[in-house]
Design brief:
With 271 residues, this protein is α/β, with parallel strands linked by helices. The protein has twelve helices and twelve strands. It folds into two domains: 123 residues, Rossmann fold, CATH 3.40.50.10860; 137 residues, NAD(P)-binding Rossmann-like Domain (Rossmann fold). The two termini are 30 Å apart. The strands form two sheets. Strands 2-1-3-5-6-4 form a six-stranded mixed beta sheet, sandwiched between helices. The protein has a six-stranded parallel beta sheet with strand order 9-8-7-10-11-12. The protein is globular, with a radius of gyration of 19 Å. It binds 2'-monophosphoadenosine-5'-diphosphate. 2'-monophosphoadenosine-5'-diphosphate binds next to α6.
């Protein structure tokens, strides 16, 4: 019987996940389907009860359900707990297993795109939303000695630093440029630079020339931040790879094959 999986959210039409998983299903010749499902919040509980009975092995979860499914899961991974939200569910033995793969997707993308990145250097993370949380958790777990946080609304950065404690510190949004001195990594998790949003304009002069610069924004692929960093020869990693890599653990759990993230996949998702 075909294995079923999908993605739930509301809205769901913009999701690139069906194309991503569809590419892997075809490539590995797997008898399976991955479908987008628009699920309004009022239908979430019923959906979570019904999908396993309909033969679904699991689902991805996107806005606005990431926190709600975390609350409803029977088992959660440490990294999902660190974020308080889940993006990947596995239905097994009548139970819902919840994971959050954004952080490891971020790291896998960083390691693939910047093989010389050193996890023993400090990092600067801009933004303090859900994405920042997963990334800070992943960086600290990977051994990064210190993470400096900055957010337009400083109170949100303070709240994030409180969650992670000692190895994090906060600088005011207006002082980001000076605080780039000594960093080994600069990450943008804000929506600045996305098509239709203002650019992220930072003075990068203090950033060491070997520091890696990455953005979770992938529309456009070359954000103003990444272009400015590339112009001064910093290694840059675009945000599409994070989307691709975060999908690997779900696909592996549902369909039984660990898929590869390569240029063919990038092309398929961008097409
Ligand atoms: P997510 O949970 O996906 O990270 P989010 O919570 O909406 O999304 O976070 C968006 C991030 O972009 C926030 O850090 C936000 O800053 P605030 O916490 O101050 O809102 C940041 N952001 C959005 N627009 C911005 C702008 N014009 N200037 C600076 N930061 C901005």
């Amino acid at each position: 019987m075909s294995v079923l999986a999908g993605v739930i959210g509301d809205p769901i039409g913009h999701s690139r996940s069906p194309r991503l998983h569809g590419h892997w299903l075809a490539r590995y010749g797997i008898d399976g389907h991955y479908v987008p499902l628009r699920v309004p919040a009022a239908d979430l509980d019923e959906t979570l009860r019904l999908l396993p009975r309909l033969g679904f092995a699991g689902i991805n979860v996107t806005i606005p359900h990431k926190e709600a499914v975390f609350d409803r899961a029977d088992e959660v991974t440490d990294r999902a707990r660190a974020v308080g939200a889940a993006n990947t569910l596995v239905f097994r033995d009548g139970r819902i297993h919840a994971d959050n793969t954004d952080g490891i997707g971020f790291l896998a993308n960083l390691r693939q795109g910047a093989p010389n990145w050193q996890s023993d250097r400090p990092a600067m993370v801009l933004g303090a939303g859900g994405a920042a949380r997963g990334i800070v958790d992943a960086l600290l777990t990977a051994g990064v000695p210190g993470v400096t946080l900055a957010n337009r609304t400083t109170a949100r950065a303070d709240a994030l630093a409180d969650v992670f404690g000692d190895r994090t510190q906060v600088v005011p949004w207006t002082e980001v440029s000076d605080a780039l001195a000594g960093q080994g990594l600069l990450v943008n998790t804000t929506s600045l630079g996305m098509t239709g949003q203002p650019p992220l304009t930072l003075d990068l002069h203090a950033l060491p020339e070997e520091a890696v610069v990455t953005d979770i924004v992938y529309t456009p692929l070359a954000t103003p931040l990444l272009r400015a960093a590339a112009a001064r020869d910093n290694p840059v990693v675009d945000g599409l790879g994070m989307l691709l890599h975060q999908a690997v653990p779900g696909f592996a759990a549902w369909f039984g094959t660990t898929p590869e993230v390569d240029d063919d996949l990038r092309r398929a998702v961008l097409a």
